[in-house]
Amino acid sequence: MKILVINAGSSSLKYQLLDMDNESVIAKGNCDRIGIGGHIKHTTFDGKVVDTDCDFPTHTEAFEKLVEVLTTGDAAVVKSMDEISAVGHRVVHGGEQFGKTILADDAVIDAIDALSELAPVHNHPNALALRACKKVLAPGTPQVAVFDTAFHATMPEKAFMYGLPYECYEKYHVRKYGFHGTSHRFVSKALADAMGKDIKDLKIVSCHLGNGSSITAVEGGKSIDTTMGFTPLDGVIMGTRCGSVDASAVTFIQNKMGLSPNETSDYMNKKSGFLGVSGVSSDARDLGAAAADGNKRAKLALEMLRYEIKKYIGSYAAIMNGLDAVLFTGGIGENSDDLREDVCSNMEYLGIKLDKEANKGLHGKLAKISAPDSKVEVWVVPTNEELLIARDTKALVEGKEV
Ligand code: ADP
Fold first, then answer.
1. How far is the CA of 191 from the centre of ligand 1 (A)?
2. Whose CA is nearest to atom 22 of ligand 1?
């Protein structure tokens, strides 16, 4: 069975076509500059490439081009779209309505669009992509929505509520939702499999660290708390996002700098984090290089992330009354030996002891990096959100529970 996975942004449409008989990638690519021009880069499993400028006024033209490169020309991988059994979409926000992967009919697409109020940058493009695919695909081709928030739907009320007046929750749905759920779900299950254990018996802290970062407490296979909140701004320091700050500091900055609400949001989402603290870059590799050259603020930004991760591992061990494993994933989590070593140092009290040699040079390889006598196992687990979306999509179209 062939499944197409779509990850749509406001001006881009990333895709992967997977053969689910062996879970291999047949082709992948990205249509970007939608609305401001257009460009497609398409690569097949056997190295054929299409890399060309196009005209993409909307997501529909981008999807039409994607169909064209998949089905015609040198880099075609299917004879017709009829070979593709279903399309799985990454959708960022499922609100309180969607706690599970679901078949996306018109009513669901409208509901996803209506949730744009909670996630304006993400949900509207997700709805646009769902509608664009529907226009172009053969009638009746199932489309499936896999939500970034869904894995966190199991958080208890005491974890997802803020100490604001209750009406904020009732009227405006202000609460913690959590994000990166597809990744946390994929890696925590992959970890349990690698450990040879049933996930129902495990207490895991899952650290997804990339441009956006979040940490999740996974108890018995369920998310019980996570660091991102109402939006993906909350939690640990990120590439350009500040992470948690005292809300009164925000109103103070707004007054001092004369910023509008949107400008304040930009300040915290796009100008803060690694970039804002270091003044160097939002990229962890650039910060590492600057810190090695003696840049104190770059070093500070990197230390802040390490410190915050340690704090969350400790607090999540407390709420789960124990800890069986910590996992690292995402661009930083999978690639930064230094970060993993720093986070896991001086954690003997919690039962964490790293094997420094095993921790070196993994670059996205699944590996156990704790010492044999460490009470808590520590692992690097490469994430693969597209594969999980494809697996969920296949299961749903086969009429199975996900
Ligand atoms: P996104 O959240 O956009 O998916 P990624 O998961 O790809 O991002 O992570 C990007 C981050 O990973 C960047 O900060 C980048 O510097 C970092 N990264 C990638 N490779 C390395 C490496 N070898 N060492 C340290 N950080 C790395």
1. 21
2. 335
In a domain, 319, yes or no: yes
Regarding whether 221 and 337 lie in a shared domain, the answer is: yes
Residue with CA at minimum distance from ligand 1 atom 21: 335
What is the reported pLDDT for 119?
83
Do 362 and 270 have their domain in common? yes
Substitution candidate for ligand 1 out of 281, 332, 339, 362 with most atoms within 8 A of CB: 332
Provide the whole-model pTM.
0.95
Can you tell me the distance from the alpha carbon of 99 to that of 87, in angstroms, rounded to the nearest whole number? 19
Would you say residue 160 lies in a domain?
no
Among 19, 74, 105, 148, the active-site one is: 148
Q: Give pLDDT tens digits for 301-351.
A: 999 999 999 999 999 999 999 999 999 999 999 999 999 999 999 999 999
Check which CATH number belongs to the domain holding 231 and give it: 3.30.420.40
Q: Which tens digits make up the pLDDT trace of 175-188?
A: 999 999 999 999 99
3-state secondary structure of 385: helix
Pocket-forming residues, ligand 1, beta carbon under 6 Å:
210-212, 239, 283-285, 330-332, 335-336
Q: Which amino acid is at 37?
A: G
pLDDT profile of the chain (402 residues), mean per 10: 94 96 97 95 97 95 96 96 96 96 97 90 92 90 97 98 98 97 98 98 98 97 98 96 97 98 94 97 97 98 98 98 98 97 97 98 94 98 97 96 87
Q: Are 119 and 251 part of one and the same domain?
A: no
Lookup: tokens for 338: 């230094």
Give yes or no: 148 in active site: yes
Q: Which residues contact 341 (CB under 8 A, 6 or more apart)?
A: 354, 356, 359
User: In angstroms, rounded to a whole number, what is the distance separating the alpha carbons of residues 341 and 353?
Assistant: 10
- Listing DSSP states for 16-78 in one string gives EEEETTTTEEEEEEEEE-TTT--EEEEEETTS-EEEEE---SSHHHHHHHHHHHHHSSTT---
pLDDT of residue 228: 97
Q: How far is the CA of 383 from the centre of ligand 1 (A)?
A: 12
Closest CA to 52 of 25, 73, 31: 31
- For residue 209 the two structure tokens come to 């660290």
